[in-house]
Design brief:
Number of helices: 13
CATH topology of the largest domain: Rossmann fold
Structural class: alpha/beta
Strand content: 5-15%
CATH superfamily of the largest domain: NAD(P)-binding Rossmann-like Domain
CATH class of the largest domain: Alpha Beta
CATH architecture of the largest domain: 3-Layer(aba) Sandwich
Shape: globular
Number of strands: 8
Distance between the termini: 37 Å
Helix content: 40-55%
């Protein structure tokens, strides 16, 4: 966790769900947290769950005038987290009405847009905006066409805004199915059945919790949606601390070393290059999982190194070291 002391963070939608979980963690990290929502009583109850420095401000984010007034009261901020959810836009395409979808856009996309735009005069030049969208932007589940349109519109703003507003950072966190009050429109039995169905399809065997998203928000994580580790793995190209390695090459036929002797992933701790090459040449499906495991682990370690180098003030040198490996081939 970065040192967030003396940092002022406004979290809109901070009275429940992902917003509340984010507020709790940032408050514990020493930030001066301001939570905002429409329900004044609920907001005050939430504020009492936080530290003595936490503040609360009530306003309707669907009303631009109220946003302007609220931001004037808040004053300068270092970071803005927008965790609002509109609650409309779900349903099959055949039955989804344009009125329902417009309400969904008004409740989520336009509130995110307006909050980000109106925050600019108050946002630090080195600050950040983090949108909380949803996985429906990139999934293909029946009944989510409206939600996909809303969240895709939010995520579509991120890249051009990141360029336009630099050096401020603009990020998005795209949670999957998370157990928050957004789902309270279902009956308890329907909610349980729905979560069980999603849990069975999830790699971790459960739906998400707000706390799962918090660390990503607090770190200002960029919207990563990249096939490089997995696609390269499927084609036999691996990333190592000494450069790229193409496992299908004949030179690894009798090589008993791991892919990367400095790597601690399961694949490197368990299998040799020779065995992995054998599996690849034999078109054994297991090898795709093993190679993907290594590449994903490599990228996770790469991001750890980036964070550490930033904190140590050594990021330019870290970039140079990584870039020097880009075109090399491991022998």
């Amino acid at each position: 966790m970065f040192n967030l002391k003396e940092t002022k963070i406004l979290i809109v939608g901070g009275s429940s769900g992902v917003g509340l979980a984010t507020a709790k963690l940032l408050d514990q990290a020493g930030a001066s947290v301001i939570i905002a929502a429409r329900d004044e009583k609920k907001l005050e109850h939430t504020r009492q769950l936080l530290g003595i420095k936490a503040r609360a401000i009530s306003f309707d984010a669907s009303e631009k005038e109220q946003i302007v007034v609220a931001l004037e009261k808040v004053g300068s901020i270092d970071h803005l987290v927008i965790a609002l959810s509109g609650g409309k836009g779900a349903g099959s395409f055949e039955t989804l009405t344009s009125a329902n979808l417009r309400t969904g856009f008004a409740g989520k996309f336009w509130t995110h847009f307006s909050l980000a735009q109106e925050s600019l005069p108050h946002l630090s030049a080195s600050g950040s905006i983090t949108f909380v969208s949803a996985i429906s932007a990139r999934s293909a589940n029946p009944g989510t066409v409206g939600l996909s349109a809303i969240n895709s519109a939010i995520e579509g703003m991120v890249k051009p805004l990141a360029v336009e507003l630099k050096p401020r950072r603009v990020n998005a966190v795209s949670p999957g199915v998370v157990d928050t009050p957004w789902w309270d429109w279902l009956s308890p039995d329907e909610k349980r059945e729905t979560f069980n169905r999603f849990a069975q399809a999830a790699p971790v065997g459960r739906v998400g919790k707000p706390e799962d998203i918090v660390t990503a928000v607090s770190m200002g994580v960029d919207l990563f949606d990249c096939v490089i580790p997995t696609r390269n793995a499927r084609n036999g190209t691996l990333f190592t601390s000494r450069g790229k390695l193409v496992i299908k090459n004949a030179q690894f036929t009798e090589d008993e070393r791991p892919i990367d002797e400095s790597c601690e992933c399961y694949t490197c701790r368990t299998f040799s290059r020779a065995y992995l090459r054998h599996l690849y040449i034999a078109k054994e499906i297991l090898v795709l999982r093993l190679l993907t495991t290594h590449n994903l682990f490599y990228y996770a370690e790469l991001m750890k190194g980036i964070r550490s180098s930033i904190l140590d003030g050594d990021f330019p040198n870290y970039i140079s070291r990584v870039q020097s490996l880009g075109g090399e081939r491991e022998n």
